[in-house]
Design brief:
Blueprint (H helix, E strand, L loop, with lengths): L1 H55 L6 H25 L4 H4 L8 H4 L7 H7 L6 E2 L4 E5 L5 H8 L5 E3 L14 H6 L4 E2 L4 E5 L9 H8 L4 E6 L2 H15 L6 H5 L13 H4 L3 H8 L8 E5 H6 L1 H11 L11 E4 L4 E5 L7 E2 L14 H22 L7
Parallel strand pairs: 2-5, 2-6, 3-5, 6-7
Antiparallel strand pairs: 1-4, 8-9, 9-10
Helix pairs in contact: 1-2, 12-15
The structure holds adenosine-3'-5'-diphosphate.
Length: about 375
């Protein structure tokens, strides 16, 4: 009898224990879910405020502030990456990429303070890296740097700081590698890259096509004779014992046969390279910018570029002024006309004197190719 009472008590206490366990587990579960919710919402609001602070920064492009901004921005990106990983959000991989590879001096410096753009950025849009929508593919020494510097004044354009050379030199590294060389953008911003050798590299059109058939292509062109001299001037600035231009541009020392194998001459046969691009892209996806007009009337050419890219005309004549010492247009970083900025010393060099007979012969050589180029593009650039 004592035994059965003992058994009964035992059954009773195990049942109580089981009930207590169930209650405990339920309590733990509810408290965990509740905490997780709270944590996620705190982390989200932190993230948004950090990002909008970052994007609202009005940055001037002098070296001191760029350094400060780079640090602030890299910290902010780190915070975002940490929050994202705390949330288990998949963007963590994008954001945790080493901040040192980001070109903050480039895009952030061009963030415009216009209220409309600030509002767009306040809508909680998260920055991430994207493959470029638009490429400046050439032509070398025609004003490609000027074009990039001018168009990246637009708050909706972000560009890789240096030439990435993905499609001609680093293609084997893959698109993931390429994407990691792109700047952070938010929705509505265009990602841009400039590598002028793309225009003349045979494999590039097909590779760009495979990345994105809708890629927009910007091509600055300049009188091929002046371009060749500019190209030569650049090469000669790096090599002390360079032969004279006239010796390199012609075969056998006379001006009768043009050396079409010499890079500076070969690159100027634009029609040949363009025909290859047109096998992959319709003319409507290409915009040709006159290198001469980009110097004479930069606002006009940048207006065309903004239209082509579907952007509001934000960069206007108010952003440019002619710098008499430099002999070229320079920039105001904002409409407020603060921080004038000219391109560096390697842009706008003095060219050496070239024998006029050599120049005339080169003009004659290029004429049929130029005419073909006018025909292909539907634009008469009126080169002499
Ligand atoms: P030069 O240095 O021979 O004058 P790229 O950027 O493609 O290498 O082209 C360089 C050329 O851009 C320069 O060639 C220069 O003529 C031209 N250019 C156009 N706009 C310019 C600007 N605002 N400042 C300096 N150079 C400019």
């Amino acid at each position: 009898m004592y035994g059965s009472i003992w058994c009964h008590n035992l059954n009773l206490s195990s049942r109580n224990l089981a009930i207590a366990l169930v209650v405990c587990v339920t309590l733990v579960y509810f408290s965990y879910s509740f905490n997780a919710c709270i944590l996620a919402s705190i982390s989200r609001s932190l993230q948004e405020s950090t990002l909008s602070n970052l994007l609202m920064l009005q940055v001037r492009n002098d070296s001191d502030t760029v350094a400060t901004v780079a640090t602030a921005a890299s910290t902010a990106i780190d915070v975002v990456a940490t929050n994202a990983s705390a949330n288990g959000v998949s963007t963590a991989t994008n954001l945790s990429t080493t901040a040192s590879t980001i070109d903050f001096s480039a895009g952030l410096a061009s963030v415009d303070g216009a209220p409309k753009y600030q509002m767009l950025r306040q809508q909680g849009l998260r920055p991430s890296r994207h493959l470029p929508d638009t490429l400046i593919i050439g032509v070398k020494k025609s004003g490609t740097r000027a074009l990039l510097e001018f168009i990246r004044l637009h708050p909706d354009v972000r560009a890789a700081g240096s030439e990435v050379h993905f499609f001609d030199r680093h293609y084997q590294r893959g698109l993931r590698w390429y994407r990691h060389h792109m700047p952070y953008t938010i929705e509505g911003q265009i990602t841009m890259e400039k590598t002028p050798s793309y225009f003349v590299t045979k494999e590039v059109p097909q590779r760009v096509y495979h990345m994105n058939t809708a890629t927009k292509l910007l091509i600055v062109v300049r009188d091929p004779v002046t371009r060749a001299i500019s190209d030569y001037t650049q090469a000669a600035s790096k090599k002390a014992d360079m032969k004279r231009f006239e010796q390199l541009a012609f075969v056998n020392g006379s001006y009768s046969v043009v050396d079409t194998n010499w890079g500076p001459v070969k690159i100027g046969v634009y029609a040949r390279f363009l025909e290859h691009w047109l096998l992959y892209f319709p003319l409507s996806q290409l915009l040709f910018i006159s290198g001469e007009r980009l110097i004479m009337d930069p606002a006009y050419e940048i207006g065309r570029v903004q239209d082509f890219l579907g952007l509001k005309r934000v960069v206007t004549e108010k952003h440019f002024y002619f710098n008499a010492t430099k002999g070229f247009p320079c920039l105001f970083k904002s409409e407020a006309r603060s921080t004038p900025h000219c391109l560096g010393k390697t842009k706008g060099r003095n060219h050496p004197h070239i024998d006029t007979n050599a120049i005339d012969r080169l003009r004659e050589f290029y004429r049929p190719f130029n005419n073909k180029f006018y025909q292909l593009t539907g634009i008469n650039f009126a080169w002499p």
